[in-house]
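Re-run with default settings, no changes from the original entry. Doing this only to confirm the output is reproducible before filing.
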Amino acid sequence: MRVALVGGGITGLTAATRLAESGHEIVLYEASSAGGLAAGFPFPGMEGVWLEKFYHHLFRSDLHIVRFIEELGLGADLIWQTSRSGLFADGRVWPFGTPLELLRCRPIGGLLERLKMGLSLRVFQKTSDWDQFDAMTCEEFFASRSCLRGYRGLWEPLLKAKFGDAYARIPAAFLWGRIYPRSRSREKGVETLGYLRGGFARLMQAMMVRLEERGVLVRLHHEVQRIERLGPRRFRVHTSRGAEVFDRIIWTAPPAQLARILEPPEETLTRLASRIEYVAACCLILFVKQRLSDFYWINNLDPEVTFGGCIEHTNLVPPEHYGGQRLLYVINYLRPDHPYMRLRSEDLLRLHLPSLARLYPGFDA
């Protein structure tokens, strides 16, 4: 079977690999370079070292991708490190990674609220079936646990930072998807996260080599502009460089793009795709002169702070991997039309500097 696979992110590359191994003829189209949201750029002055445009790490529970990394011969380069998380609220950073730290985290509310929050989160940690949480919002879940005040103090501001005005519609399954995997990524009660030495771009490069070995035709910088449905199992894919005919198409790019270019239009696809609301990740990557904290990840609860959180990358991957440089991701999740998305890096840094100084006294980039 001849298959067109559209999208060169991790999903597209993996699907192309497995289909080619099953004997199918595969052509993979990608509008830019391979990697998708896991794409990176060469780290300045360090040959063979890459840094992600958007922060990435692995959990111990990410068994499929860990096995794939090992299958591609990169298992020895997986780094596993303990990490710490915190919350910025009331002018300070509160450690937030263990049950004891949760009980000490006063922004959640009084001691009773913190106890109820701990018991509520334990429901996520101990439940492997997420379906039951998909029919209720996060607020409804905590209300059912008599933990609404704790929700208002902790999760509501975090959800607002992540989803904006849509925060009240987010299903509790979203929190399960964040809490359950992390509970499986602990060793002796401490969270352990993984990273690929040299950057996850090395995984993409290894996958591209595997695709070439399997006879997959990879067409980078080929934007799919139109797809014609010729029959029940016949499609013509048009790009700026020509057209080809396939038996099947696997689409791993945003569904709304497919809805726009499919001919004739598919009513159900168009209707469903129009309901998807996207949130953009805005990451400012900074070189910093010194270690800023003991935390890898700090989420923000303070509405006056201009970002949603900070990832001190070199608290997970030691600075020695980057020639002694220390790295910080400053992150926001925004609507694609948010004013921040139009700012230059210099202007975004200028905007964030007062907040960074609050989070990290003496901050200097």
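The CA atoms of residues 58 and 65 lie 9 Å apart. DSSP finds twelve helices and 20 strands in the chain.
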